[in-house]
Specification:
four-stranded antiparallel beta sheet; single chain; globular; alpha+beta; about 40% helix; Alpha-Beta Plaits
Length: about 140
């Protein structure tokens, strides 16, 4: 079994789609081993997305992620990282395949409903950013 990190971003939360996304997580065979509802500060968002700090979209991204509540989760399944990325779809909802979360719930590339780790090392950092080992059941 592998673990990955996932976020239901503020846009999807505000639109009332968190429950639909969580239901889809279960339908796809993932186990949720950790989950929290958070309202990130700008500083917390900047710390989480530090790898993008030199990118031109960093300010817009961290402002977006700190504008409202989100749900952070640790998902577990065989090949969880790749499977979750497939369920999410392409970063740009306009390019995402039909049936993916970003196609269904994303608005545009900057507000694309969900986040997921892209590699085991990234998942390890992202999980530990929000969860202690005692919180993962």
């Amino acid at each position: 079994m592998e673990r990955t990190f996932a976020i239901i971003k503020p846009d999807a939360f505000a639109a009332g789609n968190a429950g639909k996304i969580i239901a889809r997580i279960y339908e796809e065979g993932f186990k949720i081993v950790g989950m929290k509802k958070l309202f990130l500060s700008r500083k917390e968002a900047e710390g989480f997305y530090y790898v993008h700090r030199e990118r031109p979209f960093f300010g817009e991204l961290t402002e977006f992620m700190s504008r409202g509540p989100c749900i952070v989760m640790v998902l577990e399944a065989a090949d969880a990282i790749n499977r979750w990325r497939k369920v999410m779809g392409a970063t740009n909802p306009e390019e995402a395949e039909a049936g993916t979360l970003r196609k269904e719930f994303g608005t545009f590339i900057g507000e694309n409903a969900t986040h997921g780790s892209d590699a085991p090392e990234t998942a390890a950092f992202e999980i530990s950013y929000f969860f202690s080992g005692l919180e993962l059941l």
